[in-house]
Amino acid sequence: MILGRVAGSLLGAAAGPFGLAFGFLSGFLIDRVIDRVRFQEQITKTLRGELPADRDLKRNLIRLIGLGVAVSVSDGFATDSETGAIVGFVRGRYGASSSQAEQIRRILEEALVLGSRIKAEAVAAALDLEVLNLSPAELTEYLLQVAKGRDGEIGDRRRRVLEEITTAAGAPAIARALDPHACAVLGIHHGADLLEVRSVYRRLVQQFHPDGAAPLTDEQRRQSNEALVRINQAYERLSRQLQGREEQIES
Asked: Could you tell me if 64 and 162 lie in one domain?
């Protein structure tokens, strides 16, 4: 954008050399303001889903950053950890000169202002992963990095937004984490499958059943019965989760 510089130089030329320099500088500043306003408008329209899918790299970077913001603000304000994950992924993936880094910062700032008004599904549907040289699985991983934030946990609201985005973008679904309390009761890791859960469950039932070989006192029998109740409840919760996950994959 050089219109302001040209106009300022022409007007300043009438005042001599100093006027020419002053006019050029004034025009340069005007061009910067106009460029910034136009870029802000582009960011706003892109993140409100008002622009159709296209192969423009800058607009697809806006969409990528905006989707990260949509996840991070879905349950409140974005933290430094989450915005750091967004900027770190974008700069690490695509590299950035000082001017490009400034653009990334401006996109992030405008996206944070829009916050919950970002049309996540529309933006995800318009995202061109090929232009970004990004696979669907890498998009999912990027969103997970942002969603986990500082504490490493993903709340229900964030998970819901994540699922909406991955579905609209055609990315792999995010596996729902197993019930952490049930996993702790059975002593299994969060990535266990149904066969492993069943094997651990059978072993624990055999271990804690009050009718085992060793004679028990009344207090020990009461404790064994209570342990079995907790084990059965945990097994039922995890079985439902894992069976539902398998049915979703098959469908």
From this structure: yes
CA atoms within 13 A on the CB side of 10: 6
Q: Tokens 């919950």 appear where? A: 116
Quick one: tokens of 61? 């970077």
The answer to whether 200 touches 164, Cβ cutoff 8 Å, is no
Asked if residue 58 and residue 26 are part of one domain, the reply reads: no
Distance of CA 35 to the CA centre of its chain: 29
Q: Write the pLDDT tens digit of every residue in 142-191.
A: 998 898 877 677 777 888 899 899 999 998 877 666 788 888 899 988 77
Q: Are residues 148 and 234 in the same domain?
A: no
Task: Return d(Cα 46, Cα 29) in angstroms, integer.
Answer: 26
pLDDT in tens, 101-145: 888 999 999 999 999 999 999 999 999 999 999 999 899 989 988
Quick one: pLDDT at residue 12?
45
Q: Tokens at residue 76, please?
A: 């409140």
**Does some domain include residue 66?**
yes
